[in-house]
Amino acid sequence: MNRFEWTPEYSVDDAEIDRQHAELIAIIDELATQLHGEGPSDGARSVFDHLAHYVTTHFAYEEERIARAGYPDDKIAAHQAEHNAILRQVQEFERVFESGDAAALQEMMPFLYGEWLIHHICGTDREYVPWLTAAR
Amino acid sequence: MTPRQGFERVSPNDIRLGEPLPYAVYDGSGMLLLQAGFVINTVKQREVLIANGCFISNDTHHPKAAYPTLPVASVSEEHSSFEMFDLLKLRLKRTFDLYKHGHLGDEFVPRIEGIALTIQEACTHDTDSALANLHLDYDSSYAVIHHLQAAMLCELIGKKLGVPDESRLPLIKAGLTHDIGLLDIQDTLDQQLAPLTPLQRERIHRHPIESESILTSLGVRENTWLDPVRHHHERLNGTGYPDGSSGDAISLPTRVLAIADIYSAMVRDRPYRKAMVSTEAMRKLMLEQGSATDSRLIGMMIKEIGVFPPGATVRLANGEIAVVKKRTVNTACPLVFSFVRADGMPMLTPAQRDTAHEPCRIEGMVPFSSHRGAVVVLRGLWNRH
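^ Those are the sequences you sent over. The predicted structure of the assembly is below.
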């Protein structure tokens, strides 16, 4: 059984963003499995690289999509700021992988799960749903 | 999922929305999901967390969170006021978020009151740690830190003026909410490098009135809270707004809030300028605001928080960079801990220095932004171990 799985409850009423969120959650789930082992492994590193790459594309798509749906400029700016903060943190963890600091690596799951899944996907991302629905 | 030994399931009722988690949360396999202090905001988020398995460790020997162990100087006092301000940042952020999303009705006033009381408690218990926390902050949003710092300065100056505890509370609450009329555009303003648009200028000019009416709509009735909010941009010489009041028409609490507001805005980074070190901000307040603000109150504030306030980073005569830990009776000679050697290399363990002793005399302040990398080591000076 997977730890984290996308369910229709997470839906933001846009099939493509939903697909990307499902993929992201699947990557986070895989990373959790890898990280729960004995410290930094090559497997964890390559899953993480995939995540870092995937998220850049996803954020760009999402920002473009909500702008097209008429999401107000100030809200887009705030959303982008949150994306940028996540990207900065992702870069920070790239450095942690480089340094092989096992203790610092343990902070990755609370970040991915708390800040990203709970606060962002289940929080901030929900705020644009009415705009996407209205634009359909 | 069956929990591993040493863990017990958390009931959904134990997770209070909008409150920092009092413990770290693990999944059924013992993997750390959320650090203590994380805030769950919505019912949906709580449902997701419960669905993912939500357990706490009931083994006190279980490592709560694997933080890298950093060397810290051995200071033995308790520093709960420092930690209290970490929680206050979360609580105020949460309150602002709820307000922005229209999810706050009657709850607003009690939330702000709770925060105001905690500020008073933290300042009474250990003013140095409370001041240091906000000066050393590097990642909270401007809106949160600015309001907390203004509120704390109101409390400190009010106390110095001899205002009794319960009469200071409305002013702390005014400090916590005086720019609420700008919250919706604050994030944009925080990132904007371009000059203000006419609309933004208009919003800024109107924000004291806007803040007052928002607070009224959220159930604030106390005039001692509303009045300083409406008038915190009035100036003694009549050049302020929105009403252009002058002199004695501006109440004492309003003057206190005006100074707290200007000072706390000056010492933070803004998109269009770097933060000023506090000595520079105080000098600027004294020189430029001479006829506009109450210089007696500025003098009082400087005396209260010190020329070199706790949390400030300073350069010593011997070339080391140090952080101010505590004020002493001599405002020019606080207790400091050096954390960068004269040759520019970081120290593994910060070392206490006596600034009354010539080689360690404080030569001046340096911006904290140049030493952000040291923030974990510096915060360690205030955290309990």
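The radius of gyration of chain B is 22 Å. Confidence is low (pLDDT under 50) at residues 60-79 of chain B.

Shout if you want it in another format.
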